[in-house]
Specification:
By secondary structure, the chain is mainly α. The protein contains 4 helices and no strands. Helix 1 packs antiparallel against helix 2.
């Protein structure tokens, strides 16, 4: 049996079963009767509607949380920029506020490329050959 049941398909299937079962109410499958099945379908629908309502509440709470997070992030950025403007980008106050001091930033370094990785293009090769020959 599948672990996920589509609510629409399940409702449609149960509707067909109950319609058929109502035409033959004497049919019993152990402790399963038409009334038990109808009650289970009603409980399922009630739980599904509660779940949808809870999702809407949850989505509203998530939107509120995201809006507040945006306000907080903006406040942090404004504060950090204010500290940077007042105390400077290399100050300890700026570092305490969460900024990266200018002196702590890694300076870019050039690395030497091994000669075997250098590929000469034909235009460079001709120019180099002329220089070697001379005028």
């Amino acid at each position: 049996m599948p672990t996920f049941y589509s609510p629409k398909k399940l409702h449609k299937d149960c509707g067909k079963v109950l319609a058929t079962w109502r035409s033959k109410p004497e049919l019993r499958l152990g402790d399963l009767t038409c009334d038990v099945m109808k009650q289970a379908l009603d409980d399922y629908e009630k739980a599904r509607k509660e779940l949808i309502a809870n999702r809407m509440e949850r989505m509203a709470l998530q939107k509120r949380r995201d809006d507040l997070a945006k306000v907080l992030a903006g406040g942090c950025t404004r504060f950090r920029n204010g500290v940077r403007a007042v105390y400077g980008p290399d100050s300890t106050e700026y570092a305490q506020a969460g900024g990266v001091r200018t002196s702590a930033r890694k300076k870019p370094r050039r690395t030497a490329v091994p000669e075997e990785d250098i590929v000469e293009t034909p235009a460079k090769s001709k120019a180099a050959a002329r220089r070697k020959k001379g005028p």
